[in-house]
Amino acid sequence: MGLFGTYSRAEGGAHRRLKTKPSRACVFSSLLLASVSIPYVSSEDTGPSIVPDRVRRHKDCQGLKNDRIPPQPKLVGADFAENASEYSPLSEKGATSAECKNGQAGGYPCNNVNLLSMLDLDELNASINNPGRKKNANDIWGWTDKESAREFAIIGLFLGTAFVEITDPHNPVYLGALPSSGDPTLPLFGIEYGLDTDWHDIKTYKNYALVVSEIHEHGMQIFDLTTLLTATPATRFKQTARYNKFGDAHNVFVNEDTAYAYAVGSDTCDGGLHFVDLKDPAKPKNRGCYSQDGYTHDVQCVIYAGPDQDFVGRELCFASNEDTITIVDVSDKQEPTQLSRSTYNHGYTHQGWLTEDHAYFIFDDEMDEFTKNVPTQTYVLDVRNISTPVLVGAHTGRTGAVDHNLYVVGDLVYQANYRAGLNVLKIKDISKAKFTEGGYFDVYPNDDTNNFNGAWSNYPFFPSGVVIISGMEQGLFML
Question: Is the C-alpha dihedral spanning 122, 126, 132, 135 positive or negative?
Answer without folding.
Answer: negative
